[in-house]
Amino acid sequence: MKRRLLNVLTILSVVTFAAVCAAWVRSYWAWDDFEVRRAKPFADGSVFVRSWTLESNHGWLSFHTNVAQWTAADVQKYDPYRADSFISRVQWLTHRPTRKVWPSWHLVHYDHRAGAGGAASTAYSYSAFFARHALAAAALAIVPAVRGGRRRWRARARRRAGGRSCPSCGYDLRATPDRCPECGTMAHGVIEYAKEL
Asked: How far apart are CA 109 and CA 125, in angstroms?
C-alpha cells in the first residue's frame, strides 16, 4: 500500500512538474489566469462569493483565494460593471504578461472589514502565495529524484549481492569469492554457513 501511494505521488509530481515547466515557458508571452468562483445569493439581496485563482505570469506562479460578503447595495452598485463577479463560474483568461520584481516567493494576506477603506459595507478576506516557476519546479522534482536515486541504489546493491562485487565497497570478488581483499567483508554465503556452525 505504501509503495502504491509513493508511486502515485511520484507520477503526480512528474506530471505537475511537466505542467509547471510548460507554464513557465508560456508565461513570458501569455499571462494565464484560471479561476473557479462560487457565488451564493441570499434573500436580502446580498451575495457571498468565494474564488480560487491560479495564475502564471512572466516567470511567476501564484495562487489566490478570496472570500467576500457583498451587500445588496454593493451588488446593485457594481452589477452593471461586474455582473460576472456575482455568479458561479470556471474561466481561463489570457492577458499580456507583466514583469514583477519580487524575491523568490512571498505570501500575502489581508482582511477588509465592512465599511473600512472607503468601501460601503463589503467585507472580504484575501490570501495569495507567489513563487517563481523555478522554485515550484524544483520542489516538485524532489520526490521523483529521491525515488529514482533509491531505485538506482537498490539495483546497484542487487548487482553487488549477486556475487560479482563486494556489497560494501564494490570490489570485484571473482578471484576471491569468500572474502573481500579490499575491505575484509565476508561474502553472504560464507556468513550464512558460519551462522549454521
From this structure: 8
C-alpha distance from residue 144 to each of 7, 91, 139, 140, 155 (Å): 9, 31, 10, 8, 16
Contact 53, 34 (CB under 8 A): yes
What is the rounded distance in angstroms from the CA atom of residue 13 to the CA atom of residue 27? Answer: 20
Instruction: With beta carbons less than 8 A apart as the criterion, state whether 92 and 32 touch.
Output: yes
Q: Which of the four pLDDT bands, split at 50, 70 and 90, describes residue 188?
A: low
Handedness of CA 162, 165, 166, 169 (dihedral sign): negative
Rounded to whole angstroms, what are the CA distances from 112 to 28, 36, 72, 80, 142? 33, 21, 18, 23, 38
> Measured between alpha carbons, how far is residue 84 from residues 37, 38, 121, 176 in Å?
10, 11, 20, 79
Give, in order, the Cα–Cα distances in Å from 16 to each of 26, 34, 87, 101, 143.
Answer: 15, 16, 30, 25, 12
pLDDT digits 0-9 by tens, 47-97: 888 999 999 988 889 999 999 888 887 777 766 445 566 666 677 777 777
Could you tell me the three cell numbers for 159? 548487482
Q: Which is nearest to 182 in space by CA: 171, 193, 174?
A: 171
- The pTM assigned to this predicted structure is 0.63
User: Three-state SS string across 34-61, please?
Assistant: EEEEEEEECCCCCEEEEEEEEEEECCEE
CB count in 10 Å sphere of residue 73: 13
